[in-house]
Amino acid sequence: MSVETTGAPRAFALPLRRKRLGAELPGWIAYALAAPSMILLCLLMLLPIAVMLVMSLTNYRFGDLSYAFIGVENYLDLADDRTFWRALSNTFVYVAIVVPGSVALGLALAVMTTGLRRGRKIYQMIFFLPVTATVVAMATVWKYLLHGTIGPFNLVLQSLGLPAIDFFSDPDLALTGLAIINIWSLAGFNMVLFAAGLTAIPSELYDAAEVDGLSEPLDRFFSVTLPLLGPTTLFVIVTSTITAFKVFDTVAVITRGGPRGSTDVLLYTTYLEGFSYFRMGSAAAMTVVFLAIIMVFALLQTWVLDKKVHY
Amino acid sequence: MMSAGVELDRIEKTYGATTTLRAATLDVKPGEFMTLVGPSGCGKSTLLRIIAGLLPQTSGEVHIDGASIDHLPPRERDIAMVFQSYALYPHMSVAENVATPLKVRRLSRMARLPALGRLLPGQARTRREITDEVRRVADLVEIGPLLERKPAALSGGQRQRVALARAIIRDPRVFLMDEPLSNLDARLRVTMRAEITALHRRLGATFIYVTHDQTEAMTMSSRVAVMMDGTIIQCSTPQGLYEAPEDLRVARFIGSPEINVVASDTVAGWEGGNTRLGQLLQRPLHIAFRPEAVRLSAESAAQTDMLHLSCHIERTERLGHDVLLFLRVLADGAGVTARIPAADFARLDAPGGVLTASLHPADLLAFGPDGKRVALPGLAAATNRGLSHVG
Ligand SMILES: Nc1ncnc2c1ncn2[C@@H]1O[C@H](COP(=O)(O)OP(=O)(O)O)[C@@H](O)[C@H]1O
Ligand SMILES: [Mg+2]
Hints:
The structure holds two protein chains of two kinds.
Chain A: H1 7-13, H2 27-55, H3 73-80, H4 82-114, H5 120-132, H6 135-145, H7 152-159, H8 174-199, H9 203-212, H10 217-228, H11 230-245, H12 249-255, H13 266-276, H14 280-307
Helix pairs in contact in A: 3-14, 4-5, 4-8, 4-11, 4-13, 5-8, 6-12, 8-11, 11-14, 13-14
Chain B: E1 6-15, E2 18-28, E3 33-37, H1 44-52, E4 59-64, E5 67-68, E6 79-82, H2 94-106, H3 124-140, H4 156-168, E7 174-178, H5 186-203, E8 206-211, H6 214-220, E9 223-228, E10 231-236, H7 238-243, H8 248-253, E11 260-263, H9 264-268, E12 271-272, H10 275-280, E13 286-289, E14 295-297, E15 307-318, E16 322-329, E17 335-341, H11 342-347, E18 354-359, E19 365-367, E20 373-374
The complex binds adenosine-5'-diphosphate and magnesium ion.
Magnesium ion binds next to helix 1 of chain B.
């Protein structure tokens, strides 16, 4: 094609202002353009964490006018603090119940609803509802549902001739009760993630599996669906773990750490430390520990995603 | 290994109100390389999936060696299929991919469990046999060195070979291939074409090969079935399809460049020809002739039977050995494509781009208004000129 003397191309060839498309900008312009977001990033993300790190090295008490640096004393205190260790172990137990439960339930719901010929949307919407509900409000409902004497769950058990289970006043069961609520509210979210992963599996792969003889639903699930959901599953596990780690509101509303400290979890202890006992330095140290744990999971995710489950 | 004949008896497939297949009937002989060719969306994949048992037909029957197989699930049909997207299991190595059909058949479900399954007693021999089979088949399609790789680390051509190996290893009676080469680049496609035909000769199994590429169809198969709008409109040898298309759509689809098609009253106005042709052209017909049937000369030759048209050259395309000339008939403006050897083109002297195209009446194919072939009796039998230009 020649760009010669006809009228129309000439109009394009002489624009009022020349725009440099694809040209490299001088470095300072690039930095100047990036500056606002860099500043915001520092102010909103990095600064609060830095302040907290510093605070964890002080004996600052909420409302005090002065404070002193005490080095890692807060951390050493934590190491000797039985309440802290109990909270930590409670949190891990809680995560160990919630993650498998919500991931397996989410996967099951996703596989079952995507397989539906009709009504898929409506079912997925219903299962997603708990995600949108306010946890505090729903916690109240669950407290009633699982109540030892007036709760419908126990009324059903009793009518079947079974002994009543009082989840929230039994130290052995309270944590499980809270975990059930979290599974209930998390499964719908995981279902949506899994459903998205399922639609990305090419249907020809199922055809190939069928021709190869993998025709039973279980065979298909274990030889095609599950392996191809690998990256999705890992992502779901990590996000569920982080969510479960952050458990706070159900504890605050239903059990307040009780009975006898059996549901005392990391964030709740931190909250009490900072806002009931006003020991900000110590609370900051707990938060640092909390962040470190979350960070390990996040790093684990990127590492495994890069290494293994990528096809 | 036994090869088997496949008969399709009036297969219909409807999706709600839309009909995808209508009375598709085809008889594939044992050991034959049958190609199903047709434009995209004509229902080729649908038909193949019905043969494989992946999709139920609305009506009609599929027989293998005379026995109906419609009640059999895919795994019991003894049919292997190669997919356009290769459909390899991305999480398995090449060796595991190829071994899957055998493992499924020879190992129990427990023994197939990852890691755990190996601990079960009494399957070491079966596993060894499977490994040997995998190695043998891998050598056959030349993927021996790739066995430990994941599909993601393979090129398109290598993936295609893995897919072939996975089909071969089961030693099936029938191979179905759904556009297996369409994702490969042009060069590789030519080599794989030769390899698949060689494979067919070596295995002796029945191949049903689907493609939208008429060149593939014409070069690979013993017979070609042309499919349009959900039905098979002609099934014949490549030569047969080219020389004697029974439908105007077949004539147009097979051969490149496309066959010339002109209305009969236009042809009637052309100079020359014999009286018999004149009579035949009284009816409304589509007259078609291959580009290589057109002979070109600078001066109007006076050969009696031939049709002569004065044309000017609109455009030429050089294809290396041959030259395509896109001509416009001066008298009526009809477009005619001619294909002549480059050497003849060099000798051709067309002052002012005007020359005379000549056609032998015997080279004309006539099709009725419904597109069906109409015999033109009384004209000399078709010559074999230009038939080497298939594709
Ligand atoms: N599940 C389906 N529902 C409705 N129409 C379908 C479905 N699957 C295929 N079709 C239609 O059937 C026709 C044939 O498809 P296909 O067999 O894939 O064609 P080809 O393989 O020849 O390109 C297409 O027009 C397509 O729209
Ligand atoms: Mg197709």
